[in-house]
# Entry
Amino acid sequence: MHSVKRLMARTTAFCLSCAISGVLAQAPDTDSTVSYDAEFFNEFGALTVNDMLDRVPGIEMILAGGGVSSVSSDGNRGLGASAQILIDGKRMAGKANEARAQLARIPSSQVARIEIIRGSSSDLDVQNSGQIVNIVLLEALPTSSLATEVNATHYHDGTLRPGGSMALSGQNGRLNYVVSGQATSGYEHFQSFETSIRGDFSPNDTVAIDRYRDQMNYSLNSNLTFALTDNDRLAFNVLYGEQDPPITLFRNIVDLVPATPVTYYERENIPATAENWELGGDYERRFANGSRLKFLYISNQRTNNTTRERYRSTTPTDIGNKLLFLDTASRYQEKIARSSYTFTVSESQGLELGFERAQTTQYSDLRQGVRTSAPGVAEFGGLTPLILPNASSLVEEVRYEPFAVHNWQINPRMTLESSLVAEYSEIAQTGDVSRTRDFNFIKPKLDFRFNINSSLQLNATLEQFVSQLTFADFSRSVNERDDDQDTMAGNPELSPEESIRTEITLDYRLPGDAGTLNTRLFHYDFDNKIGRIDISESINNLQSTNGNVGPAVAYGLISNASIRLGFIGLPRGLLTAALTMQNASYENNTFAPVNMRFPPYDRGSLRVGYRHDLPEYNMSYGVTYNARAHDGRYIYENDSRLTWIIPTNLSAFVEMVGFAGLTYRLEGSNLADFEACALRRRYDGYIRDGVIKEIERNCSVTGSQFALKVRGTF
# Structure
């Protein structure tokens, strides 16, 4: 802990010294917003907003929210105050159907300019947690346009799957609209091979797996914006999506323990259905004194139903005997209402006061049947029902959040944005377990920005953060990571994580739009961290589940660079790179080492990309390489440790405008056919006892993929 504090102090001193040096060396210029007019992109033949953004240095970092690993991948219930993308200075009235998904549907002909907003202000529709992309559309849009794409993807096993999309956008009087539909392939052929040895290093078994997922994803979207008057704006958002992701799985198991190895064959049929929808709307009223009143409402729902049936035989052609039946059903729903009033306190200060209410429900049901000598039941696949505790559950949270956001322009070069959010919530679980709990939190945040000049900016953030719980953890669920354990116990006693988040960022825009350099240091000090806890009733039946394990810490340094290569004679060549170095550890853990890392804070990652536009040939090409630190992520149970060796990925594309003015793009992913490997050590008893029972090594490949896409705007 002391070493972390020393690192923080040294880095802070370095950042401040850089800032002071910049002040002394350069004349101040307070305009930190970077703007790209539509004419800038004319030579590239861009069809959509996404095509335009591909030519903006540093855009990957901005759209990724700065690159800092998320505290929790599930901490996104409700709406919150931040967003990375605005359209005409407004956030979209949606979550699943959010602004980033719209960028491929808006034609470049409707764009006036693209702004990279690096400051904070009450004039913004959201809090700026890093940098914001604002897409400014033309006030008078041209005639409605139709953007289309047809594509075909070739997978490594020879499978070919089609896809496509259509988006109609335009303006009719005071109405702006985007209506689109999309069909994409989610096909996957997954192959893996596992070898296992016993604790005495004698052979145990081998398992070869072939898994096919034949999935198509369909979605319909519409976004309508209507200017009731010059000061009143009304927007609607609609989304419907449907997936049909059936999976077929084959296992070839060779038991090496007997003197003569024995071979088994397993087959799993896993039919599944999934759909989601979302409705959203917002209203904004601007007053003569510059103040704004906003109201936003969102309702969405996701449903998933999956059935797994496992058969085993001694010959590859026989269906065999059914061993397992697992049926899961889940439904997740949100209803969110948010309102705020923004006004000017003084010439240099603005204040936003608001309130958000969110109702979230998660229904889940799990049924398991196993093969025994007892009579079977049809509802359990003809097998014997297995009594599972906490298998049927309905969790509901009602949360209220009054908030205040204050923006202070201290001087032309410094801003301070401070916010205070109070969270009051009640979580009630009914079904197999009945439990009701209340939570109250106060969440302050400070964001200080110092524009050393128009290019160099120092940003320091201090925040009290409270993560939101994953309701699926409250009840028993299917274990997707371990074939030896079909289900995992739930925990209705989970409490939210709390953390103090400190971030210091230096962002430098090179002169002449030559690129951008960004370095961010983060330090998260957790309390009540969620990890795996021991719930074993006896040493002979070890079990663990997600629970609160106490204090923990995560910290790291993330550097991003995006540089135009004009200095070596390639003015339209863009080199990008991102390096992440991070670490995480618990202060105490009942059955695992305290210095273990926890997701998503593995040791680090590297991304290098190159893009070259050749307007004279109506052509572009590029390549991207992603790699993660070897042996960088661990997942602990009380009797096993899983080590992920995450694969690297090499992808490339070539694109050109050709026949009939259409854009033709050929892209490939996983070109080097990298493997993903996992090493699991199983212990006889607790990990702390150190007696290894089995070591499994599993490596898998999904193969290379190639896609041909043809796009056009009419």
About this structure: DSSP finds four helices and 37 strands in the chain. The domain at 2-713 is CATH 2.40.170.20 (Maltoporin; Chain A).
